[in-house]
Design brief:
mainly beta; 2 helices; 4-stranded antiparallel sheet; Methylamine Dehydrogenase, Chain H; 5-stranded antiparallel sheet; about 400 residues
Length: about 400
Amino acid sequence: MPWSRRHVLRNGGLLTMSIIGGCVTSPSRESTITPTGEDPEYTAARTQYQYTAAHTGSVNTSVPTDITRKWRSRHEEVDGGLAVIDGRVLVATTDSLYALSTTDGSRLWSAPSNVNSITAPAVTRDTAYVSMLGSREESTGVSAIDLSDGSLRWRALSSTDISSAPTLSNGRVYVTSLSNSEIIALNATRGESDWRSDEGQYLSTPTVANGTVYVGGKTNVVHALDATDGSEQWRYEVDGAVRATPSVIEGTVYVGTQAGSIYALEPADGSERWQKDIGSDITEPISGENGRIYVCGGGTIYALSTDGTVQWSVKTTQSASALSATKNSIVYTDQNIVCLDAATGETRWTFGVQSRQSGDTMVTGIECSPVVRDGVVYAGTNAGDIYAIQ
């Protein structure tokens, strides 16, 4: 897949040809500080990319068998990501960040004009954290946005291109830097840098589980770092570049490689539990729950048991987005929004989206992953439509 700015998140971060040994630097202060309070309740993640810091892709809700459009709201191209929480749909694009009502799709607020993102925000009870990869210094770094009105709480790393989704865990926001080749941990309340670790350029979105940060990159290495201070716990060499964000599902670290392999690793020491070759570049995080994992590779979705046995596989129209695993279904986007039966892989429904004429070009399809919340599926399209279907 050719690299472009809109593919950075979907492919877990851009890739490079070399790695630099882990070097943890001392904290720095680059932000304009407006604290929301040190109470952990205020910095606990309510939702984020692939729902949790472990990036399981699983959500505890059911998707109806018969669906209808609840609403459609047209804006600009959605090439970033969505987050849905407390009656709001947060929409991130390379041009803007705004909030819509989950009731009817009406716009509630827009963030300052220099706040934009190619990633889904991470959200607490009162703050949305947005990572920014911009062409201008005023649109780079990490911003904390007030959920009530879209105003800026603080901005950090203002001279740093952030190439990952923000991962929020235990009062810290973890990101990876395109320009500085680092994993960076920010204090979620104040925006200060708690630690920075140089693990090689163009790393994946960090995954955090049980006090450990997991990250991959083009150097064919998976890194595990202490979430508190960034010290290395272990590293494991795999057979290809790790473009997709690692996932921690039911006590196992799952990693997909560009060479087409799935690795199941022991979280404590990185030892290999099993490895499965599906023969196709894996560019999306592995999702799963209830003893089954789901993998996108080469225009095919695979369901595997937790010992690596393939249970079913389904061809997609084009490369699929990261998957949402619900209680009974798998939801993904390609040219359309599609729902599969989780047990069998049979198609439960397909929802077609509208296109838009832009000059001589017909704009169609979907770049970002769907979000499922309370039985409603939300998706944003290249044509600029946000859909809520139920």
